[in-house]
Design brief:
Layout (H helix, E strand, L loop, with lengths): L2 H9 L8 H14 L3 E5 L2 H12 L5 E4 L4 H8 L4 E4 L20 H11 L7 E4 L12 H13 L4 E4 L3 H11 L8 H10 L3 E5 L10 E5 L2 H14 L10 H13 L3 H20 L12 E5 H4 L9 H13 L4 E3 L1 H4 L1 E2 L6 E2 L5 E5 L7 H16 L7 E5 L10 E4 L11
Parallel strand pairs: 2-3, 4-5, 5-6
Antiparallel strand pairs: 1-7, 6-7, 8-12, 9-12, 10-11, 13-14
Helix pairs in contact: 1-10, 2-10, 3-4, 7-8, 11-15, 13-15
Bound molecules: pyridoxal-5'-phosphate.
The site of pyridoxal-5'-phosphate has 13 residues, from helix 3 and helix 4.
């Protein structure tokens, strides 16, 4: 965090109710996002749980460009169905188009026609599309999705985790936005929506925290009632006053364009350097992460032998680099009829870059280690599950290698 955020931590007021830190937090959120009700939560998934358990029920369907893992799980636990509607190019890692995070508007229209608007308690758009390769969503796409939703009376929510990075991509890539400030772009983007969930650990630039926001007063009341049951009083949610201060400062700092320029440039630097060495990645590099295309990296490993997990393990063994599989480990499903494992749409490995942490030498080291593993890719095999939980299995799963891990690595 920045020195201003640490100063905020020292100023934090820990009053149980009505702490001034809460009002600074609330003012920052309202000023940037424009929603009238702001509900603090200890992180993003708590906001998701409160939102979905208030509005979803069995038989409901919730569309998203691509659901993040916790978003999907918090919908499914209510008995509702989470449906991903990415644009086709969003599923082609090598395709370099600028807004691969977009939702397929035609598929949204068909889904509404198929299940009826009453079965859709809300529609979501995730900016940037984390599980879809960290790719941005265009303003045009958000406007079109919003028009479809509003014409059917379906509230549109934004999963706002990386709202500032997405807005900066719009500024750089979308016609008509080059001269607008990131704040103006953010304000326009959220004006097309009815609410949002947010993990402040991302573009809140904080270590913990989140919020749920809406313009619907009666919904906000129900959500606050639930908040008290599991998170805490409505002026702190699950957070300490000092966390509220750090987020209030972070939300303003993340709009600074020199910060965003550096952020995107450092991710792009990693992506371009490994891509130049032949490593297949999701193109173009995302806002917060580079995603290795593990299916192309290890074509000899079939999706159900978890090629992404192999790349994750090999990068850790080679260079202590901790990535995460975003493929069949995270999103595979058992076929309800045969019980067989159904692979995910893509086999990716996310290398998310903590903001304000790494220097160029760290990234150069990463490039070397990744290229080294790529050089010995032919000797890498797959993994199998030893243990998996029923939901969100990738957080706690245990694996066994189907080959010799690190084989060929020089340990001298
Ligand atoms: C797009 C997206 N939504 C929701 C979440 C959940 O946020 P949290 O980890 O704070 O619960 C994340 C976290 O990575 C995310 O990337």
């Amino acid at each position: 965090m920045s020195s201003e955020q640490w100063a905020g931590i020292m100023r934090g007021d820990e009053a149980y109710a009505g702490s001034p830190s809460f009002f600074r937090f609330e003012n920052a959120v309202k000023g940037i996002f424009g929603f009238s009700h702001v509900i603090p939560t200890h992180q993003g998934r708590a906001a998701e749980r409160i939102l979905f358990s208030t509005v979803c029920q069995p038989g409901h369907v919730v569309p998203n460009n691509t659901h993040f893992d916790t978003t999907r799980a918090n919908i499914e636990v209510t008995g509702a169905k989470a449906v991903d509607l990415p644009v086709p190019e969003g599923l082609i890692p090598a395709d370099p188009r600028p807004f691969k995070g977009n939702m397929d508007v035609g598929k949204l229209v068909s889904l509404i026609a198929e299940v009826g608007p009453d079965a859709i308690p809300l529609c979501m758009i995730t900016v940037t599309n984390n599980t879809g390769g960290g790719q941005p969503v265009s303003m045009k796409n958000i406007r079109e999705v919003s028009q479809v939703c509003r014409s059917h009376g379906i509230p549109l929510y934004i999963d706002a985790c990386r709202f500032a990075e997405n807005a900066y991509f719009i500024k750089l890539r979308e016609e008509g936005y080059g001269e607008k400030s990131v704040r103006e772009i953010v304000q326009e983007l959220f004006s097309y929506s009815d609410g949002c969930t947010m993990s402040a650990k991302k573009d809140g630039l904080a270590n913990i925290g989140g919020f749920l926001a809406t313009n619907d007063a009666s919904l906000a009341q129900k959500e606050r009632d639930l908040l008290i049951l599991t998170e805490g009083y409505p002026t702190y949610g699950g957070m300490a006053g000092r966390d509220l201060e750090a987020i209030a400062v972070g939300l303003e700092e993340v709009l600074q364009e020199d910060y965003l320029e550096y952020r995107l440039a450092s991710v792009r630097y990693l992506g371009e350097h490994i891509s130049d060495a032949g490593v297949p990645i999701v193109q173009p590099p995302g806002g917060h992460a580079v995603y290795i295309d593990a299916a192309a990296f290890l074509p000899q490993v079939k999706p159900t032998d978890l090629p992404g997990q192999s790349v994750v393990v090999e990068l850790f063994v080679e260079g202590g680099i901790r990535g995460v599989e975003v493929g069949t480990v995270m999103f595979g499903r058992n076929d309800p009829e045969t019980g067989a494992e159904l692979p995910a749409a893509m086999e990716l490995v996310r290398l998310a870059m903590p903001r304000r942490v790494y220097t160029q030498s760290h990234v150069d080291f990463m490039v070397e280690a990744i290229v080294e593993v790529f050089g010995r890719r032919n000797g890498i095999g797959g993994f199998g599950f030893k243990y998996q939980a029923l939901a969100l299995r990738h957080f706690t799963a245990d694996f066994e290698p189907l080959y010799e891990v690190g084989g060929g690595i020089s340990m001298s």
